[in-house]
Design brief:
Elements (H helix, E strand, L loop, with lengths): L3 E9 L4 H9 L1 H7 L3 E5 L2 E6 L2 E11 L3 E6 L9 E7 L6 E10 L3 H19 L3
Antiparallel strand pairs: 1-7, 2-3, 3-4, 4-5, 5-6, 6-7
Helix pairs in contact: 1-2
Length: about 130
Amino acid sequence: MDEKVKYELEFPIHASPTLLYQYISTPSGLSEWYADNVNSRGELFKFIWDGAEEQAKLLTKKSGERIKFRWLEDEGEAYFFEIRIQVDEITKDVSIIVTDFAEEDEVEESKMLWENQISDLKQVLGSA
């Protein structure tokens, strides 16, 4: 398997960090914008898109700030995806920082996928 490349995306978003955290850290919140359905049992999250299931393990979670998962298919690898809420100290502008990994020839496609999903999140939040 080819090495995956790490990339980071930043999305300015008009929403309170507290509200945002609910959408990135809970199965019901993630079901609103990230996947068709999300279930969790402890640290194991099941994401469902068009009937296809992917499972991820919750690696870390810091209330109001970040959540980090590893796909089970990447178990044993250093790959993960993280959604982080960043608030500018001075302007109080809120951004979502996404860190993810993709095969080198799939990075652009992965970035576009995240852009679409964050766009869905902004619509759900009414901040589009």
